Amino acid sequence: MKLFFGEISNGKAIINDEEQQHIVKVLRMKDGEEIHVTDGKGNVASGILMIEGKKANIEVSEIKNDTPDFNPKLHIAIAPTKNIDRIEFFVEKAVEMGISDITILQTEKTERKNINIEKLRKQAIAASKQSLRFHFPVINDLIKLPDFLKNINPEETFVAHCNENLERIELKEIPHLDNITFLIGPEGDFSDKEIQLLAEKGIKAVSLGNQRLRTETAGIFVAAWNYLT
Predict the structure, then answer these.
(1) How far is CA 11 from CA 43, 47, 54, 166, in A?
(2) Alpha helices (runs of H) in 9-76, residue ranges in sequence order
(3) How far is the C-alpha of 191 from the C-alpha of 196, rounded, in Å?
(4) Short-list 44, 47, 12, CA closest to 31
(5) In terms of CB atoms within 10 Å, which end of the chain has fewer, N or C?
């Protein structure tokens, strides 16, 4: 399946401008090839490619609306690593495994303060297309941990931290939920003050095993666990 990003409405599909350039200049596709276009909201159009000069259009033969998405919906709020390549790697792999939302957290120990969110969003779209996802995940702006906690449901929110002196449940003990939010700390973990704040909010701590995982590895681990549940 050749999947591209675009808009779908009123029985028609319009391929995104950047995607059109990719089709014509990079892929050098030809008239008559079968293609599919998704709006990233669960809708997908199938049809035949039509090339007109530098423009690429689709002659729609079928549109499927509200295709099913991954369940449960997983939201990972993760602190950025000093080496941004590692967070970009996490985004790509988590998207392939069906994550619904990603939020970049600013914590007390976060060293990187500036994040190119638009670049992460483009990478999420690319990973969605590559893995044939019709629901693109939401990549939220950088937010401070206390502000993020103002809008969470503690019954659906869990945190992975490395403090072995505090009670932590196993992943298998998490009940089946339609929506799950996981917090992943920075290199050096959440501060004691932040861990106390999380506990006061009623957020349960979860152990990810005996090994101490890097930030991006922990995020991928949780995404894989959710993918397999």
Answers:
(1) 11, 12, 23, 55
(2) 17-21
(3) 9
(4) 47
(5) N
